[in-house]
Amino acid sequence: MKQRKSNTWSRLDNAAKIFPSTTTKRDTKVFRFACELYELVDPIVLQQALDETMTHFPLYQSMMTRGLFWYYLEPCSQKPLVKLEAKPPLGPLYDANRKGLLFEVTYYRNRISLEVFHALSDGTGAMEFLRVLVYHYLIHKHGDTLGAAVPAMDYDASASQQSADSFAKYYNREGRQERHRTQWAHQLRGPRLSENRLRIIEGVAPVKDVLRKAHENHATLTVFLGAVLLCAIGEEMAVRDKKRPAVLTVPVNLRKYFDSQSARNFFSVINVGYDFRSGSGEFADVVEHLERGFAQMLTHEKLSERINMLAAIEHNFLVRLVPLALKDVVLRIADDFAAKEITASLSNIGRVTMPRELTPYIRLFDVFASTDILQICVCSFEENLTMSFSSAFVSTDVQRRFFRTLTGMGIPVTIAANEVDPDDSGEVKG
Fold first, then answer.
1. Pick from 42, 225, 360, 396: most CB atoms within 10 A?
2. Shortest CA distance to 114 belongs to which of 137, 141, 143, 140?
3. What domain of life (predicted)?
4. pTM summary value
5. pLDDT, tens digit, for every residue of 223-282?
């Protein structure tokens, strides 16, 4: 008997559509979000917390299925189980030949980690999942100590709000559409790590020190760190490389500009760069250039144009009739062209908050992502700012320059790294 498709299936949101088609062994399109506690993780309690968290996030009980024209999500009966971390980070979670959940919760010593396939959620949505997971873990673990002081969690989005496709909600067929002019960017080159591994380098600094330095330079935190990264890249560029600008792609959380509590993808990206051939290359000049770029692109009007441009392609009648196999090919080609426009990626998840009663148990939150180039992800919790690089390259010269720039400004940074091969100690000196 032919199995009937579940009537609770849902098509991927606009931003998610590209990820199944462009997933590779090198770039698995997976995020890792982590919470580091001041105590060892109890796996039994963590499983209880995960079970309870799943009742708040029914969307996560989904698997990916190929249709004739689109990918879609449908309910998955597999129960998510907590696992001891035993493999390299950011491994594949989506396999077209295997049905299964699109996320995984692991633990190692005092760290709880959540890995998520990007087609399921963006960084903001996944961080909400982790926050709720850590909340339930600490309530179960320390409920007796908290007693009557058990706090409420500040996340109460309904199931319908979480599963909403906000791209569809804010798409305006009659609205203006962004016109995109292609400009190739400087590309990072060099030997890559073997076996599709990634090097993760994590720097932790006092957030107040970084903010103070950003304000001294009349910049936001994101602009300040973006300028530090661009200058680090610029210092590694040969004269002949400067014929093309160094460009950062920066994800933008659209929930800050449009009313949405979706736990799915609801983000856009902006590309901001600096031309080291025509500019002075001085840090202040890079900051000023980035500040202007952010101000021009981070407006409701510009972001609406971006939504309309991407959604118009999806809603085109002829595009909808193209079989998925051909869409996969076209999306991979489009992704290859888009990659030529960027040098590296900077993602700022922002400030992570937890109920005041639970903060004494938590040291920091952390996030990093798969990439086939170089990416830095940033988030802060209480006094700590975490800056985590993921890179496919053997060389760590850009990362070293980045952190040395911060320490040269008087900002103390504690650095740790993963071990990617037996001959690599994973140590990075600031």
1. 225
2. 137
3. Bacteria
4. 0.91
5. 999 999 999 999 999 999 999 999 999 999 999 999 898 888 899 999 999 999 999 999
- Domains belonging to the chain, first-starting first, are 10-146 (3.30.559.10), 183-417 (3.30.559.30)
**Distances 375 to 20, 285, 297, 348, 370 between C-alpha atoms, Å:** 20, 23, 21, 11, 8
Strand order in the sheet with 103-108: 83-84, 103-108, 111-117, 30-37, 362-369
Give CA–CA dist 56/355, Å, rounded. Answer: 18
The pLDDT assigned to 138 comes to 96
pLDDT of residue 430 exceeding 50, the answer is no
Note the pLDDT tens digit of each residue in 155-213: 777 778 887 888 888 888 776 666 667 789 999 999 999 988 999 999 999 999 999 99
Query: Within 13 Å of residue 67, how many CA atoms lie on the same side as its CB?
Result: 17
Q: What is d(CA 167, CA 169) in angstroms, rounded to the nearest whole number?
A: 5
What is the model's pLDDT at position 178?
64
Q: Quick one: which of 136, 160, 150, 159 has its CA closest to 56?
A: 159
290 CB-near residues (< 8 Å, 6+ apart)? 219, 223, 226, 227, 230, 272, 274
The predicted structure's pLDDT at residue 179: 65
